[in-house]
Amino acid sequence: MDNADSLIVVVNNSAATTNNLKELIEFMDSPEVCSAKPREWRKAVGSRRIEAVFVGPDLKDGEIRSLVGDIGKLDPNIPIVMLSESDAE
Question: What would the pLDDT profile of 23-34 be if each residue is shown by its tens digit?
Fold first, then answer.
């Protein structure tokens, strides 16, 4: 499979938590990892295909609902991983 246009997206407000998770995913030899804040993820993704979305623990309920709804409209089969506060430690 060609992963040149594939992307894993990390959506979170905290830059430190986002960078830690991004480094962990990249360590596992995954497709490119993109990090973005909740309102900026579409621009960061562009036309690339999303392999998975990791949702950080500091998003508000409204941000989560909006993000999950938008991802579902884009492709209902994209895996979404919800992280808790303990995952971020």
Answer: 888 888 777 899
pTM of the model: 0.85
Write the DSSP symbol of residue 35.
E
Residues 10/36, Cβ–Cβ less than 8 Å: yes
What's 25's domain CATH number? 3.40.50.2300
Give, rounded to a whole angstrom, the gap between the first and last alpha carbons of the chain.
33
Which residue range forms the structural domain that includes residue 61?
A: 6-88
Measured CA to CA, the distance from residue 78 to residue 59 in angstroms comes to 19
DSSP β-bridge partners for residue 82 = 55
How would residue 1 be classed by pLDDT, with cut points 50, 70 and 90? very low
Instruction: Compute the residue count for the chain.
Output: 89
Count the helix, strand and coil residues of the chain and give each as a percent rounded to the nearest 5. Answer: 40, 25, 35
